[in-house]
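Q: Predict the assembly, please.
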Amino acid sequence: MQKLKQTLYRIIFGTDTPAGRGFDVILLWAILLSVLTVVLESVKSFRVAYPGTFQFLEWFFTILFTVEYFLRILTHPRPWKYITSFFGIIDLMSILPTYIGLFFLRSHFLLTVRAFRLLRIFRILKLGRYMHESQVLISALKKSMYKIVVFFGVVLTLVLFLGTLMYLVESEQNGFTSIPQSIYWAIVTITTVGYGDIAPVTVLGKFISSVAMLIGYSIIAVPTGILTVEISDAVKSSKQERQLVCPSCSYHEPDQEARFCKKCGSELE
Amino acid sequence: MQKLKQTLYRIIFGTDTPAGRGFDVILLWAILLSVLTVVLESVKSFRVAYPGTFQFLEWFFTILFTVEYFLRILTHPRPWKYITSFFGIIDLMSILPTYIGLFFLRSHFLLTVRAFRLLRIFRILKLGRYMHESQVLISALKKSMYKIVVFFGVVLTLVLFLGTLMYLVESEQNGFTSIPQSIYWAIVTITTVGYGDIAPVTVLGKFISSVAMLIGYSIIAVPTGILTVEISDAVKSSKQERQLVCPSCSYHEPDQEARFCKKCGSELE
Amino acid sequence: MQKLKQTLYRIIFGTDTPAGRGFDVILLWAILLSVLTVVLESVKSFRVAYPGTFQFLEWFFTILFTVEYFLRILTHPRPWKYITSFFGIIDLMSILPTYIGLFFLRSHFLLTVRAFRLLRIFRILKLGRYMHESQVLISALKKSMYKIVVFFGVVLTLVLFLGTLMYLVESEQNGFTSIPQSIYWAIVTITTVGYGDIAPVTVLGKFISSVAMLIGYSIIAVPTGILTVEISDAVKSSKQERQLVCPSCSYHEPDQEARFCKKCGSELE
Amino acid sequence: MQKLKQTLYRIIFGTDTPAGRGFDVILLWAILLSVLTVVLESVKSFRVAYPGTFQFLEWFFTILFTVEYFLRILTHPRPWKYITSFFGIIDLMSILPTYIGLFFLRSHFLLTVRAFRLLRIFRILKLGRYMHESQVLISALKKSMYKIVVFFGVVLTLVLFLGTLMYLVESEQNGFTSIPQSIYWAIVTITTVGYGDIAPVTVLGKFISSVAMLIGYSIIAVPTGILTVEISDAVKSSKQERQLVCPSCSYHEPDQEARFCKKCGSELE
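A: Predicted assembly structure:
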């Protein structure tokens, strides 16, 4: 019994056995398909044409993930630790909405929560290769966080200032009906998205916008510069090869190609 | 009396005591809330619903900042230096508009000046950690300034040239009513904002636009490249560890791990 | 006969003889002109004005490329290897559509396939200089692939999440008619394209959009940082000069300027 | 006489005397003001209000630049070399249009040529500091040219392919009236400009567009990466300090701080 639990644990939580990898791959497909169901159900023509199919699929995936959830709790050596972990909460949140929908009227709110099911996709990060690569990126992001915060502080101040200025320059008829609305316009402009739903009409407004665009165009270089430097460091340190130390005389050999210690002739590891 | 002044100075201007940090954090919240008041007051539905609240809040923050302003003048060892400093002027500008509004009709102009209150947010830079990070960015920006100026010179020339060209190619009916208008369009295009309020209509105009877009898409790489190089340098030199100097023979030890001077055997700091 | 085949092989497949380079340059022009024909034929006014010209040109280029295709098969030492190679398949696909068009009604589908003719342009990569440069870029792209995949995974999850959220926040009248439609909007926004065909209308929608834009504006730094690091590595290793080795004592000279071995005095290659 | 010519030559062409720098600064202002005149003249309300002023200013600047042009020819030691140089041609082109306008009807074409006057602004590059900085950028651009050409080849092929595909997917009613029109749309999309004058309407079209946007969003990283690497190299080599060589024993001292040769004790330059 205990052995069965251990074997199941290795299959469900581990990725070091063929069965474990297989379980993860099947799970990933199930997650993707369940998300696809939610997405397609939102299309009116589909929803009207196949109402039963979507209801069936939703319950199919919910029961599948419920079984998986309880299996995880049962096989984990310390169930409570799993339940309160990041993935434990995500796993629960991906099945709850359907059950809650039984008791209450199907609300729009539940649909959003069901979108959390998508977060389970990050389980892919457990799959070897991707884990390493994402760790390099996360490490670079963490290191550059303080600089990015300063940068965002400057951008937000700029956007608030531009928004207030344009609210005063352009009259309310031109779409700049309030400062929050103008701030929305400033963000649309600074980030170079440029929907065009609100655009400057007066000559002065166009001049200010032009300056704002050129600023937005230039300062995009700042986060890129910050991240490039940190990614460069993170990649370098992840590539850094082990240092060779002679087992008999403790000499540190800098040459990675050396096979014998050049001080005492001992074979290096 | 003198001692009270010194204690207050450390609380108001310094960040090295718990009381000093507390004062700064409360001040930051007051600034943020006062800015929020200005922003929300611009929304018509709010302004109509709570006219008294906004008037009260404006006077509340103005008096608060006035008290703070006089406290700063009184406790500073050289008051005139503070008054003429960057933050001194900003602090004055953030309270003046409300008082001027008493004597003159409430004009839109005053609202903009009140937006300057926002600049006080930069006081956050005094808070330890962020100061260091922003210094790295400012130092990188300063070093790359001449290159950025050259780059902007090229962009402005390009935009002027494109504007003139498009003014001639597209007739006035297509929105290109004057060269300044065309330059506005060129900036919207080159910076990849693309509102769509003015867009080329003729075949030749579309061709020229396409070339302009591809140019804009490529040259965005130039400021990014410049800044990345300078940020990389600034980060490196800020990370550079202190150099070890032997206290007895003044030998400069390059190896950061060394614990004893290899010339005279003295223990290194 | 065998010699003629070899000479033709060097002209058609090689670029190391003047005739071989000449053949490639003529071919490139033919490809460019044939693509231009397809493009111009799609313009109604041209198609109506010169119907015969376009039909003639299409057959002219098809026959030209057919002759080239058979010459390649005949002169290649292992014809089957060429036929199943990347360029072999592209070459076949660039002539097939016109012949198929004889038997079936001219369908729109064939036009797309004829666009594949364009892929033959990549033959330019065989021309000396460009081959080297593109290899550096391809090598950098290959090395950063796993990181780019992780990045795209995050972007797609973000876009799906934003799409679902906006579908719920904005009502269907505002253009967000289904989750796929909302995802389309999210991609338009995150990539800073911003057509403006769908734009948020409600206050909450505008707020969420603003956050999405600022995120999109920042994370563009991630692939740039990744690629810059890898291109930097690829350029460095492609620039790495050959190492000097003494022909008599096998000493490895690190100084690229050295002309004589500093161990035994032999002249270095 | 000869001496006057030499003095004038140093003032007009040189920047190493106070008079020479003064001449260049006045000239730059004259160029900027003359360009401003052309720009403002295009605004209908100004043109109608002050017709005489614009005509006067145009002749004023033309005569000023004509005098400057002949002074340059007269003082240059080899006049023909100046006339056929890049700036010689630009200088001529900036005065010719006004004279041609006397004989022919004022055509729109002449206005464009007058925009060339703007190119004279690049004379600023002669001014010390800017020259050095722009040389670093130009050198980086030159070195990365082949890679940028390969990149543009890929972008153009992609745009042509996308244009053809969308022409077939979206019907002509949706704005994709011909392949050139579709290519224009593809460029607007890939470069993330996104005017919105043409936008996909069908579901398949929106899907293809989404993929195109994500591609455009990613490949912008390629030129940035290329340029960053080359700018980094160019900056480094421009910063590279001179190498110290001992004047008596020719020892190459790598340490920039050394004041005496460590081999023979001679003082280093």
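Chain A has a mean pLDDT of 79. The first helix of chain A runs from residue 2 to 13.
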